[in-house]
């Protein structure tokens, strides 16, 4: 996990932002698919999966927001202030 954090250039907040962005892309893909005319079993399956993705997205967003409020100084990259 530390290698991933280092590769992304940040800590937990960066990982949560990256996860949220990926989930936003997944939500859009599911929404686009659900907007099409699909056989009922396919639509039901995608609807169930979409609900799980939305739930996961909300959890990650809440965790990111909580981290932002709990430790705002940890969110700044090392180096001089802008």
How large is the radius of gyration? 17 Å
| Uncertain runs | none
CATH topology label: Ferritin
Identify the CATH architecture. Answer: Up-down Bundle
Query: Distance between the terminal alpha carbons, to the nearest Å?
Result: 28 Å
Q: How many separate structural domains?
A: 1
> What does the average pLDDT come to?
81
Largest sheet: none
Shape: elongated
Share in helix: over 70%
Structural class: mainly alpha
How much strand?
Answer: under 5%
Describe this structure in words.
- The chain is an all-alpha fold.
- The chain has one domain (2-71): Ferritin.
- The chain has three helices and no strands.
What is the compact description of this entry?
The chain has helices at residues 2-8, 12-34, 40-70.
Task: Write a concise keyword list for the protein shown above.
Ferritin; mainly alpha; 82 residues
SSE blueprint and pairings:
Layout: H1 2-8, H2 12-34, H3 40-70
Helix pairs in contact: 2-3
């Amino acid at each position: 996990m530390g290698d991933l954090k280092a590769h992304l250039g940040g800590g937990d907040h960066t990982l949560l932002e990256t996860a949220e962005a990926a989930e936003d892309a997944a939500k859009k893909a599911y929404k686009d698919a659900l907007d099409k005319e699909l056989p009922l079993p396919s639509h039901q399956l995608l609807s169930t999966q979409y609900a799980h993705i939305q739930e996961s997205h909300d959890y990650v967003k809440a965790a990111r927001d909580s981290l932002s409020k709990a430790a705002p100084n940890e969110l700044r990259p090392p180096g001089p202030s802008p």
